[in-house]
Amino acid sequence: MRNKTFQYLIAALLGACGVLGVQEFVNDSLPAQSPKSDFSVGELEPDVSSPPSLRMQQRITPSPIQIPPPIQMPRIEIPFPSPFGGEPEAPQDEAPNASPNSKPKLRDDAIRLKPKAIEALAQEDYQKQLAALRPEERVPVEIYTARNKSVVNVSTLETKTYRFFRETAEGSGSGIVLNKAGVILTNFHVISDASKVEITLFNGQSYEAKVLASDPNTDVAIVKIDAPADDLIPIEFGDSSKLLVGQTVYAIGNPFGLERTMTRGIVSNLNRSIGSPQMFRQIKGVIQFDAAINPGNSGGVLLDSKGLMIGMNTAIASRSGENAGIGFAVPVNTIERIVKILLEEGKVVRGDAGVVKVTETDSGLTPVLIDVGGAADRAGLRGGKVIIEKAFPYDITRVTRPEEGFDLIVGVNGQETMTGEEFITAVEEHKPGETIILNVVRDGKLIELPIVLK
Q1: Mean pLDDT, to the nearest integer, of 25-39?
Q2: Which of 98, 359, 403, 420 could form a disulfide linkage to 271, CB 3.0–4.6 angstroms apart?
Q3: Topology of the domain comprising 149-345
Q4: Of 309, 205, 193, which is closest to residue 251 (Cα–Cα)?
């Protein structure tokens, strides 16, 4: 019985592998059964009438071998989701007459996602990544995502012609998209000597730019490009007069050509004065901050924690020419006023009161430095002065204080001016030769001081 059971197992195995015909093997191996008997394995008895060698031969020499056809592997139909939503779609059967060497055609809707579908998928992934961040990390990420496309790369080509040869030099800086018409804001010193200006947008497209106008006194320039409106993402202005020392700021620019790099810092101080590209002039009311900026950041944007523009990065204080943690930006309120004049009139003609530097106090503005012989000095304003004394072999420069004490500026033409930026704005609304009234507190009394602007 044990031999018979082993025989059945061998027969089943060989039949499954397609080597022998299972039915023929079983028929040759089993003894003849009575038609009246039920087939039962338990009733089979070994055939002992033949010698062992013959019984073995019967087992291994069945009827002629029949090779079965190749086994067809089952085709598993795996439905895949449609890239445009809806129920999963089943793959289409191949054409009946397709050549065995022909390559299957790719489904158009499976390889070409519509732009809106791609944008939706990207937005979904972005939201998942954003949700995984800590709250303090989300703010800079959201600011960068919303504003980095408003910053452009400014490339310049400067050509200098000498007597016997010509020299060309390349430069780079940053710029800010102001509107859908293609007006770009940058620093005057970035494009001042350029014979060619090229603007590269966030999508890598480059356009030659035309210089519209500039104001060296504030280091502001505007250029224009002819680009599709959909590729121009304008910046949103904030209010630089509301800034506080210590609040967080973000700078985006192209340092060393590294496009749209963002750094973070704080407002270090306000109402600074720095040198202007215009000889013997200063930019007043400047924002000082410590976010890292380097060569190439000039013309980039300075943002507050709401993602609004509060200034344009202009200069750094450094002995090596690289970041030392002291950066300066022209306030956005000044930029907005200057750009409006440049677009309307093509140039800025401003009056100068001769007040170089003021210190902000809770009661008003202290004129710590005024021009000797300037408009304010001639009108009798009491403030600090720079005195240059000749002393061989060097000149000695010193700042003098008024013996009677400093005046306190509280307004211009009756309009309150409690910050340096407000004072500059009120004065520069007037042209040279016009007379303004300084509202000044002197010896505890409010007086009016007429000044003829230069």
Answers
A1: 43
A2: 420
A3: Thrombin, subunit H (2.40.10)
A4: 309
Nearest to 307 by CA among 251, 378, 384, 353: 251
Q: Cα angle at 213 between 149 and 275, to 5 degrees?
A: 85
User: What local confidence, expressed as pLDDT, does residue 37 receive?
Assistant: 39
7-21, 209-223, 323-337: lowest mean pLDDT where?
A: 7-21
256 and 264 Cβ atoms separated by less than 8 Å? no
The model's confidence at residue 44, banded by pLDDT at 50, 70 and 90, is very low
Whether this prediction's pTM lies above 0.90 is answered by no
Confidence of residue 80 (pLDDT cuts 50, 70, 90): very low
pLDDT in tens, 378-424: 999 999 888 777 766 677 777 888 888 999 999 999 999 988 888 88
Sign of CA dihedral 323, 327, 332, 334: negative
β-strand partners of 312 = 301, 330
pLDDT at position 27: 47
| Residues acting as catalytic residues | 189, 219, 298
Mean pLDDT within 234-246: 95
Among 68, 66, 56, 64, which residue's Cα sits nearest to residue 10? 56
User: Domain map of the chain by residue range?
Assistant: 2-60, 124-148, 149-345, 355-452
**Strand pairing partners for 269?**
288
What is the Cα–Cα distance from 436 to 94, expressed in whole angstroms? 88
The more confident residue out of 238 and 39 is 238
- Per-residue pLDDT for 72 more than 50? no
Query: Helices 420-428 and 332-345: crossing angle, nearest 10°?
Result: 10
Average pLDDT score over the chain: 78
